[in-house]
Design brief:
747 residues; mainly alpha; Glutaredoxin; Growth Hormone, Chain: A; 2 domains; five-stranded mixed sheet; three-stranded antiparallel sheet
Length: 747
Amino acid sequence: MALQPNLRPLIIAGSAHAPHTLDIFLDYTVLVPLCADGGKYGDKVKVIFRPQVQPWHASSTFVHEAGLAVARVAPQQFWPFALALFKQQGEYFDIPTSTITPLEVRTKLTKLAESVIGSSLANDFKDLLELKGSPNGGNAVTDDLKYTIKFSRQNSIHVSPTVLWDGLVANEVSSSWGEKEWNEFLATKDTIWEAFLISPNLGNWMVERAQPIEDSKVEEPQQNLSEDSSQELTTTADDYAAEATSPIDDNTKEKGTIRERQEPLYSTFPRSQKMLILIIGSFAGLVSPLTGSIYLPALNTIAADLGVRTSLVNLTITTYQIFQGLAPSFMASLADTHGRRPTYLLAFSIYIIANLALALQDSYAALMVLRCLQSAGSSATIALGSAVVADMVTRAERGSWVGYAGLGISLGPALGPTIGGLLNQFLGWRSIFWFLLILGSVLLVIIFMFMPETGRAVVGNGSVKPAWWDLSLAQWLRIRSGHHFNGTEGVEEDISTINKPKKRLNPISSLRILLEPEGGITLGFGAIFFAGYFMVMTTLSEQLTARFGFSSAIVGLCYLPLGFGSLCSRWTSGLLFDWNFRRHARLLGVPLDLSRQQQLEIFPIERIRLEICIPMIYISCGTLLAYAWAMQTNASLAGIEVSLFFLGLFYSGAQQGLNTLIVDTHADTPATATAANNLFRCLMSSGGTAIAPLMIEKIGIGLMGVFVSGVWFVFSPCLWAVLLYGKQWRESEKIKHEKENSNGQKV
């Protein structure tokens, strides 16, 4: 069909003089095509990209203007730009663009165009999109856009995609077509041509490449490739652009086949191996909070044995909390850059040495210093656990998995006093550190033998083989026996999945997150929330001893309801978070593929997490009040323990949602994000630990409960702000970082 001369760049495949014409009317925000140019049959058919503006999608006009502007300033780069735009089309869907202005949309498009056509032509591109002086005059490509729209209307083209063969609508073509339908259609054509089409399956783009055979005979596919196939073809926008501007080498073709191009698997680790990694990470994460609370029942015994006041021994809790917050900032930077496994091994080596020295020391000064060293070694395990989950699990399932990985955060403070009380009463306080030494040594051996490297900066989606020194013993034995190092036979190495941090990381990286509007509010409230919970934890043993005269062993057992409540939250809350993710996917009309990552440009992740999290925070306020006044009014032990169970259940669920949100919004540096979370929680809780006994002494535990729950309630509207405006803030931060990166590259 006819084509305006200045729109010749819209011929994206074949010769302009080819006898046959295939017109494809497409909208960037609806269908993702891929058409091969050149090749053996390029002189038989030309494929024309017909921009099809969809007015019910607000950004459709903007993206088509951008394509036409590129066709003006860099005609040879029209198709590479189109492919880059298809790659990032999720950013221009209705919901992502609903909170930004048209000017901001055009600014984003200018940055995308610059990445394809170069900075020298980017200014010309920008000038074409600038509005004219008259109030309703459009811009420099408005006339081209009008031509394409008039052409579609005159030919009664209303929907995308629409396919015309030599000027006639091919009504039998459907966007849902698969291999069988395309083969049957092509077999009826009296020509030989090749084209790429991608079905419009939002969030799960399936590229179907159709290549007819000579003499119009179409063979059955040689191979039907699934997402687990060793022949899976992983492609980036740069690969698409290169292919669009280069002839296809006949040696690389597979005649009569249909090959699938889609996003690579998010993780190649088998589910059984994921579960093993999760179990190891969960037990490793248990170490830090367990170590912090295990000697709470032994404080009086330690003070008497070392000849110091109990208040001085209490200071070791505060210093432990401070180092528990500071140390992960250093370890997390190492983990996000060089991998999880070496960081685990380093952390546990420090931890074992500290426990050995603590078991042998006999002075208060040594106790204080070595507890700091012990905290530095153990505290990194919390950040590493969440980071390992982020390496392997997509956002659609992350609610449950992060909950299991963070099980130790809630269970540790509950189990620690129980174990510590029993050991102190029957074997003495030094046995506590011998127990921790044995526990740390066992975990170190297990990590050395079975824990594979999962860091995406090192192994990508798990398909890239790490350095020999970063292999687990199990992986090394697999390689020696001639098998794949991860036991996933047939999976090829995919270097494109390696995701190195965009910025060079350092311990200050954790502090930068606090400066983000969304990150700062989430971390700040999480720290306040944790501090209030820890004020209950650290004063519970003293309150039970004073009111009931329990021994250290019985006091330790009284912490168990908190632990059971936390344990139950991993099933209840985790399932609720994942259910809400699926609910939003249905509302958006996006089918979920759990093997591939879901894009934040499409999903309102803040709303998904906080719709479940915020109600749990309000219920936690009520359960804390119930506990505090049960203790204040000398209620029965049963009433106190029941309130503690529900406090553990709802507090842990809410904290799980906040932890998951931080990881979701900092996908490239999950360990650093978790370390930032841990830093502010521990610093805030160390202050809470110091003032809690004073508050109980001055106003009583009942009013302390009113104060803590009141603070939670007063600051909770901050999370409502994140729910309503978080996505907009995140987009603004993204644009800001992109500007910083581009300025840095120019310098």
